[in-house]
Design goal:
mainly alpha; 16 helices
Amino acid sequence: MPTPPEDTSRRSQRGKGAPVMIVPRVMAASAILLALACPAAAQDAPPAEPGAQHQAAPVPAAPPAPQAGADAERLLQLDLRAIVREELGAAQRLAELERRNLILEAREELRDDDLTILQIILGVLGTLLTFLVGGFAYFSYRNAKQEVAHAIREAKDLVDSSTKSISEEMAGKLREMESLLGQAQASVATIRSIKDASEQMKRQQATALMDAVTSGGKQPTPEEKQEVADSAEAIRQKPRGTLSVDELLILIGDNMAQKRYEQVIEDATLLRALHPDDEVAVAQSWITQGYAFSQLESHAEALRVYEHLLRRFANNDRPALQKQVAQALVNKGLTLGLMQRHEEELAAYDELLRRFADSDRPELQEPVARALFSKGLALGEMGRPIEANAAHDELLHRLADSDRPEIKKWVAKALYYKASMLARQNKTAEATAVLEQWVAKAGKVDCELIAKDSDFDPIRDDPGFQDFLRRHGCIAEA
């Protein structure tokens, strides 16, 4: 920091005035000594000019004086010396003080210079510190910015990796959920298929039971009958207006097996009211309802039901409906036979044979076999045995080689009826030969049936017929 001008002038005045004070005092002492030594010279000496530079004049050698003057001179010299010494001591002390003052001033100047230098240094240091702080702040900011950018990148990478990981995990979970959903849907579909299969099986059992009752088809096992009965019992606990087609068919089948024909008629009517669009079920309901009317000896009502079915479905090409049409034609013929309307009965059988005799579908071959057998019976009752045998021969010609139980049954019946007709004509050899075919188809001999059938009375005692009965265990060995 620079020193103010007033301080500098003060120090300059103090340093220059002190030495001037010492010289006049020395000069005054020299003048006194000279005056004492040379009074006349002292009086003639010019006064000293103030401000001039004085130099000590050499003192002339004093002439010999008396003893008193010499003592006085010595005393004066001693005093002068003492004064000079005192003045010199004072001058020395003053010089020492000046020296110390100069030192102090130098120190003060140095201190002021030091302070200035220190201030400069501090300023420089402050500037440097400012630069350092600024640089530090800049580098810190840059580093912080870099760290923040790095942290942001790391966070972004972490977020990206986490997002990717989460996305992959979610995708995996989604795939697992889709797999589980697929499995669940497959399980539901399996359960539904099992349920549908179970319902379908029960429906088939009920339909088979109805067919067995209405057409003399394959009889269900006691276990199957019981299953239908158990299902029907559970169905009866439900509101009747909510029953499905299958449930109503099961009820109809169970009522048919239990010979509850009034309930069969009611259930069949309800089925058509609730499910009029299910054509196969509607046709089945008419078949069973017609059979129930026949069992109740309401043949006209049965005939009306069959006619209704034929008017609706006679020209339908669906296989399931063609089976129902064929069954309706057979039942119509049988109903007409019960009403002693044999010509119309034969017409119904002929209509069936015209439509389905050449079919190779098993579900149609059974009605064809039944129609041919029933036609032969009708012709026999009408006293037309040749035509009756011709109908049975046609049945044997068409279906004798079939291995289906429902067809073999009608073939066996035709063989038995043919053998009985031959027995009535007393043709033992032909009758027993046909009976052997009958046993082969039926799988056993119904000895009780033969024993009660009067058609075999003409040949009952014939050895050939007796041999047949003996061979098949119908009579004991002779």
